Inverse folding.
């Protein structure tokens, strides 16, 4: 697709596809090596997400609203993390002031703040935000071709991904500024659309992005409501060559085996989650441990929400190919919907 006429970069509305409900977000992560002016060094994991939800059901009684949100996390070397979520509702009629809808570039400006996410694959992306005494400005330039995730069952969604590129910028942590000296980064743009709020359509998902010096692996696995916590209706494992960006291997559904273990009871959320997971397909095996986990709890009345356990593993994540093992870092999510918890409790 011509980069200068690529409408997949910008924002969308539920009316584009005739859906009742549409969500959309842009996500950038990085395993970052930092250094301050005085020589202090830190090694961290970081991500930032900004997005919106659109539906005629989102109203203040008299007019349709747009739901804008942003959240970010910083994972420290000592196993701690900082995480912040914020959201706001604005009149749908003013959405163009916050998001570039149907544009050939990303433009997201969070209202009444300096927080923004903008750019394109051709020019590079910039994200500015702050969380809990941390401010950051990050730049990302993809160095691989865009890959596509297009799914209809059990949840209809499209994701556009850049699984590698150059990242640089600054983080100011508790008043001290650090520069990114080197890092690995991943970017995606995800759009679920449905005839109801998207969390109501699934039990949940397992997602991982693993980066090693030789390969990058990206995994999407989605559980239907009938699957419960025991199976995945949709599974997709993509392995890319880190240096060339070419797809080295790709596996779908029954070709992929998912082995989850070391379960932890999250009593505050009424659910258990795996702290280790392996994805096996062909001659590949991708293994991740949820070492440092931030929790996004968006449980809502009416079974409209979800809880998402978002982990970073600084080292020890592996991609095995035959008898060779490649080690690196990982970002991993285990999401469970309110409807999924309700259905499981009702059995």
């Amino acid at each position: 697709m011509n980069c200068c006429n690529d409408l997949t970069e910008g924002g969308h509305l539920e009316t584009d596809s005739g859906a009742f409900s549409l969500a959309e977000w842009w996500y950038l992560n990085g395993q970052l090596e930092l250094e301050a002016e005085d020589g202090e060094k830190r090694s961290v994991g970081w991500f930032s997400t900004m997005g919106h939800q659109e539906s005629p059901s989102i109203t203040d009684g008299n007019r349709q609203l747009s739901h804008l949100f942003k959240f970010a996390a910083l994972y420290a070397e000592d196993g701690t993390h900082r995480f912040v979520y914020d959201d706001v509702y604005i009149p749908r009629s003013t959405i163009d002031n916050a998001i570039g809808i149907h544009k050939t570039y990303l433009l997201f400006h969070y209202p009444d703040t300096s927080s923004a996410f903008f750019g394109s694959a051709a020019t590079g992306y910039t994200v500015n935000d702050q969380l809990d005494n941390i401010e950051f400005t990050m730049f990302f330039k993809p160095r691989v071709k865009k890959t596509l995730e297009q799914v209809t069952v059990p949840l209809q969604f499209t994701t556009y991904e850049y699984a590698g590129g150059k990242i640089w910028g600054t983080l100011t942590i508790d008043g001290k500024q650090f520069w990114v000296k080197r890092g690995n980064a991943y970017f995606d743009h995800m759009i679920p659309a449905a005839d109801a709020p998207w969390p109501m359509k699934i039990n949940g998902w397992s997602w991982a992005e693993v980066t090693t010096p030789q390969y990058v692996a990206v995994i999407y696995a989605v559980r239907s409501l009938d699957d419960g916590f025991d199976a995945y209706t949709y599974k997709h494992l993509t392995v890319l060559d880190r240096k060339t960006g070419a797809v080295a291997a790709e596996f779908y559904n029954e070709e992929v085996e998912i082995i989850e273990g070391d379960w932890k009871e999250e009593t505050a959320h009424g659910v258990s989650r795996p702290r280790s997971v392996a994805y096996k397909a062909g001659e590949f095996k991708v293994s991740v441990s949820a070492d440092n986990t931030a929790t996004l709890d968006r449980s809502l009345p009416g079974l409209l929400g979800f809880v998402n356990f978002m982990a970073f593993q600084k080292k020890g994540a592996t991609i095995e190919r035959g008898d060779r093992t490649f080690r690196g870092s990982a970002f991993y999510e285990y999401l469970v919907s309110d409807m999924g918890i309700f259905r499981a409790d009702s059995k």
